[in-house]
Amino acid sequence: MTLPTHLMAGLVLGKITGNYSLSLAGAVLVDADHIFSYTKAKILFRPKELWRTLTDKNDPYGDQRYFLHNFFVFILITGTSAFINLQTGLIVGLAYLSHLILDALDDADYFPFFPNKKINLRGPIGYFSKSEFVFALFFLLIYVLI
Q1: Count of domains in the chain?
Q2: What CA–CA distance (Å, rounded) separates 62 from 85?
């Protein structure tokens, strides 16, 4: 999923938990591993190539969904957060899990057990598609209604 969809999920969780900063951070910062990929590929400051990569469901570099998109890293970060503060850990865990679930729902490559790239799930929602846009609007509607 793209950034707007993750943002909407974070907003909904923020409204439910009362902690917007943790919810938004947990839902969005998982994609920080993309920055490593873009830097390694030397496209971070090349707008046309970066846009092409951001809007393409295929990962030309094979490492955009990297270590932060790993279920075991999710458990480690959530567990560490919960050990420090249970409420914080629960919010971070819910937001992080929302990110992983949303990424699993799109039809881009998804490797939940990095570095094992043999597991390749493709979800029903097109990456950067009208259906993802509708999905993000659905989150916005939930946010407004609750």
Answers
A1: 1
A2: 35
Answer positive or negative: Cα dihedral of 95, 101, 106, 108. Answer: positive
Q: What is the pTM of this model?
A: 0.90
93-133 pLDDT, tens digit each: 999 999 999 988 888 866 565 556 666 667 889 988 999 99
Question: What phi, psi does 129 have (nearest 5°)?
Answer: -120, 175
The label of the residue with tokens 């480690």 reads: 76
Token pair in block for residue 101: 């679930």
Q: Is the dihedral of CA 107, 112, 116, 118 positive or negative?
A: negative
Enclosing domain of residue 25: 3-145
Residue 64: CB atoms within 10 Å:
22
